[in-house]
Amino acid sequence: MYQIKTYNAIAQAGLDQFTPAYTLNQTDDADAYLIRSVNLHDQPLPKSLKVIARAGAGVNNVPIERATVNGTAVFNTPGSNANAVKELVIALLVISSRNLLAAASYSAKHTEADVSQRTEHDKTKFNGTELAGKTLAVIGLGHVGSLVANAALNLGMTVIGYDPYLSADAAWNISKQVQRAATLTAAVKNADYVTVHVPKNDDTVDLIGSAEIAAMPAGTTLFNYSRIGIVNNAAAVDALNQGQLRHYYTDFGEPQIANREDVTVTPHIGGSTIEAEVNGATQAARTIMTYLETGNVKAAINLPDLTVPFNAAYRFTVIHDNVPNMVSQITQKIAAANLNIATMANAAKQGTAYTIIDVDDLDHQSSQQLIKTLTAIPAVARVRLLTHK
Q1: Segments in 262-301 forming alpha helices (H)
Q2: What is the pLDDT of residues 277-326, one digit of tens each?
Q3: Which 3-state string (H, E, C) describes 164-195?
Q4: In angstroms, how far is CA 130 from the centroid of its own chain?
Q5: pTM, whole model, 2 decimals?
Q6: Which run of H or E residues covers position 158?
Q7: Domains and CATH numbers, the chain
């Protein structure tokens, strides 16, 4: 029986994924956490905790390094809210081009008897432009960016994409009509609109700053629906004051961009749809079950990808430091226990490595002793024994 602890409101469709082998919220010493926005940085992680899955894209609320030391795999649900974010960005493109927010605000303030005549006279103030024929620069062509790029093409826009880290798998999702830029500056130099869709890390903080904005044509509209800090808001304010930017749309508020007519801040609603919550919860639950039952890893934050068919009777999984001689130490301990290895695989991701070893014959006493022996290796964070079902 596996114990799952949930935080926040998790969509019922996700919770319904768990089989009778899983119990929800019966103990704090859980095998897995299923979370959304809870901040785990100030919370202790129990040694029982084998996996954390966040029903969402970002993992800023998870102490990744501490989880790795604890031998806890961390997953998010990339792509689960991609369509929701795409639809919001496309909606804001239309709103921006047609000055809809200003027009609606005007109508709400003018409800007097002569409103029809007055609005007919004043409506030219809100003349907009059409998106067809305009240029959109999409910075980051992953789950969200690729959808935005393809949707913008369908609106008749010219789309320039920039993503130096674009994977081969992600590239298949992007229309061949999306032009590829070799540099960020080249991507934005002719853009009417620029939208940013990259993960937040050391390389992307302040990705869009003064120099990048200066490379855009005067009057560009900028969108940040990635994370706070991807766009340098101080630089954006300076550009707005100088007329370099026409308008700035973002999902992440800060005091320096508040109360400006040329800034629209939405309250972090990019991925807030019923469908996205269901997608995230469902994907997170399935990820937890796959990891707990098979040990296989795909797209973890802190572990390398490693997927091995589970055909043997028993499986050992070992999370350990990525240092020399670790695999030989592990296999020597298994050989000393007089066990024959049916399958073995190993992979590494930065400073952490992951090893899967399948064996056919194993009794309870020797298995418990072997777990202790392997765990005693100084560089080992966690050893698990799985039984094939």
Answers
A1: 274-294
A2: 999 999 999 999 999 999 999 999 999 999 999 999 999 999 999 999 99
A3: CCCCHHHHCCCCCCCEECCCHHHHHCCCCEEE
A4: 32
A5: 0.85
A6: strand 158-162
A7: 1-80+273-301 (3.40.50.720), 82-110+122-265 (3.40.50.720), 304-389 (3.30.70.260)
